[in-house]
Amino acid sequence: MYSKTLTGKNPKGTVTIIASNSRLQLRFRYLGSRKYISLGLPDTSVNRKAAQRTANQIELDIASGNFDPTLAKYKPQPDAKTAAPKVTPTPIDLWEAYTQYKASSLKETTKGYHISFLKLLQKIGDVSVLDALAVKAALEKVTTTHQTKRTLMQLNAACCWGVKHGLLDSNPYKGMADEMPKYRYQLEPKPNAFTEEERDRVIDAFKNHKGNWNGRGYTGINYMHYTSFVVFLFLTGCRPSEAVGLQWKHISSDGSSIRFEGSVTTSGNGTPIRVEGSKNNKKRRFPCSERLQKLLLSIRPISSNPENLVFPSPKEKFINYNNFCNNAWKRVVTPIKPDTTPYSCRDTFITTQIIKGIPESVIAEWCETSVDMIQKHYADFLKMLSLRPID
């Protein structure tokens, strides 16, 4: 099939030959994704016949299950005598090949992030992936500086893969993202922990929250429901996504221990996704303090279903972390200590345990982090706070 323009959708499994800037390309869809292959051939009748042979081969491979998702099999192979230059893919071509190659080893949440990057790349058009400056400039026109930086980091990874597999001769994105403005966590690496007094004020603020006082009564939403969730974050130092996904089957019958075996995060479209294993694909057992044990026993239903959530939303669904941060946390906690997030509960737990003399190796096991991380970001910070110049 031959077309001069990109009009309409191809029938399933059909490869269309199109002309772009007087050069032939192949267009088709595979597993729901749009594919382009630039043949680098002028739009002539002879070259269209060559293009049709490649199109037939792709259709046959898709139908027989032998399709090459890297597209390398279908791109023009340089003749040893003429040393024809390698056809350069667009950012979309490279990104789709790279993510399809890695798809089987990725979590669903990571796939959601990859889709968001694909949408950004679709906005910048068919600029050459090797023209890194043009790609960066195009990204900055359609998104934020930090999102541009994240996309350049991802393109760096994709280009490394492309060089390894012979799709590219070089990676122009190496070190490019490092030259852009740093993230806040890079500029302020110290932990953003609450003091124990601030921690208790935050807990009391949730416990006593009744809505907004207008002089005559309380209106709006009250966030008292989240008190147990917040206390749990402070007393375990777990990641919020781990607490959101916790079920009663993960709590021992006497409330003395917890098994952290997964988490719940949201996909690109806001759909909650349960992920087995932690951020680092690990599982761990956490011993409960007396205070935490009493909390868990006090909120456990008399006849609880093991599959039920320990900390459901007011509507008995997963707590939406973004909504919780932007509404409950912002309204209740910001007046006590600005510029914090629920992750500050993790900082608080680690910092408090260091102050109380718990070995760093034990804290690292409890929170599934490394001793080096604790020493660098927590212990050293606390030492610097305690030291004073000698007169």
Question: Quick summary of this structure?
Answer:
By secondary structure, the chain is an alpha+beta fold. It has helices spanning 45-64, 91-102, 108-123, 132-142, 145-164, 184-187, 196-207, 227-236, 240-245, 290-299, 321-333, 343-355, 360-367, 371-386; strands at 2-3, 16-20, 23-30, 33-42, 212-213, 218-219, 257-260, 262-266, 272-276, 284-287.
Return the CATH class of the largest domain. Answer: Mainly Alpha
**Sheet bearing the most strands, described?**
4 strands, mixed
CATH architecture of the largest domain: Orthogonal Bundle
List the uncertain runs.
1-8, 80-84
Helix content bin:
40-55%
* Count, helices: 14
The N- to C-terminal Cα distance equals 86 Å
Instruction: Provide mean pLDDT, rounded.
Output: 82
Give the domain tally.
3
- Find the structural class using helix and strand composition: alpha+beta
Q: How would you portray this structure in words?
A:
This protein is an alpha+beta fold and 391 residues long. The chain has three domains: 1-82, no CATH class; 88-181, Orthogonal Bundle (DNA polymerase, domain 1), CATH 1.10.150; 196-386, Intergrase catalytic core (hpI Integrase, Chain A, Orthogonal Bundle), CATH 1.10.443.10. It is 44% helix and 12% strand. The protein is built from 14 helices and ten strands. Strands 1-2-3-4 form a four-stranded mixed beta sheet. A hairpin with a 2-residue loop joins strand 2 (16-20) and strand 3 (23-30). It is elongated, with a radius of gyration of 27 Å.
List the helices and strands and how they pair.
Layout lengths: L1 E2 L12 E5 L2 E8 L2 E10 L2 H20 L26 H12 L5 H16 L8 H11 L2 H20 L19 H4 L8 H12 L4 E2 L4 E2 L7 H10 L3 H6 L11 E4 L1 E5 L5 E5 L7 E4 L2 H10 L21 H13 L9 H13 L4 H8 L3 H16 L5
Parallel strand pairs: 1-2
Antiparallel strand pairs: 2-3, 3-4, 5-6, 7-10, 8-9
Helix pairs in contact: 2-3, 2-5, 7-8, 8-10, 8-12, 12-14
